[in-house]
Amino acid sequence: QGALAVNTSSSDILARQQGNLLTNIGHTHVNAKKFAESEKIFREVTTRFPDAMHGYFGLGKMYQEQGKPKEAIPYFENSVLVDASATPYVFYRLGKAWNSLGE
Q1: For residue 68, is it left (φ>0), alpha (ψ between -120 and 50) or beta?
Q2: DSSP assignment of 7-47, as one string?
Q3: pTM for this model (two decimals)
Q4: Please, what is the end-to-end C-alpha distance for the chain in angstroms?
Q5: What is the SS3 assignment for 64?
Q6: Are 19 and 49 in contact (CB under 8 A)?
Q7: 76: which of 25, 26, 60, 88 fits an S-S bond (Cβ 3.0–4.6 Å)?
Q8: What is the Cα–Cα distance from 17 to 69, expressed in whole angstroms?
Q9: CA dihedral 75, 24, 36, 51 (to 10 degrees)
Q10: CB-CB contact of 44 with 76 (8 Å)
Q11: How far apart, in whole angstroms, are the C-alpha atoms of residue 23 and residue 44?
């Protein structure tokens, strides 16, 4: 709640820090198998930072960790579309998702 309450409209640095903090909280929830909480956080990240890949990647990871690779794939692909220099872990997770579907 505290991270979401901060008004970052006047500072790009503060907005970036908020995005990083929310992303870390979302991944912590995924790792703890608190998927509803992580989904809420990552959807907020995609709303507040639509040009950043982290929210989309987080949603993909959340679905993949629940054994839902078909739902995860569009989010991983969107991560790559938003940031063409997506890091290897995005491609790794995308490959694992396709592999689990027999592709």
Answers
A1: beta
A2: --TT-HHHHHHHHHHHHHHHHHHHHTT-HHHHHHHHHHHHH
A3: 0.88
A4: 40
A5: helix
A6: yes
A7: 60
A8: 30
A9: -40
A10: no
A11: 10
**Token pair 């709640």 is at which residue?**
1
Do residues 62 and 38 make contact, with C-beta atoms less than 8 angstroms apart? yes
The structure tokens listed for 22 are: 């929310």
Tokens matching residue 69:
């690779």
CA distance 66 to 13: 33
Identify how many contiguous H helices and E strands the chain contains and give both numbers.
Answer: 6, 0
- As given in the structure block, the two tokens for residue 85 are 């220099």
Residues 32-71: pLDDT tens digits? Answer: 999 999 999 999 999 988 988 999 999 999 999 999 999 9
Percent helix, percent strand, percent coil in the chain, to nearest 5: 75, 0, 25
Please indicate whether residue 79 or residue 85 has the higher confidence score (pLDDT).
79
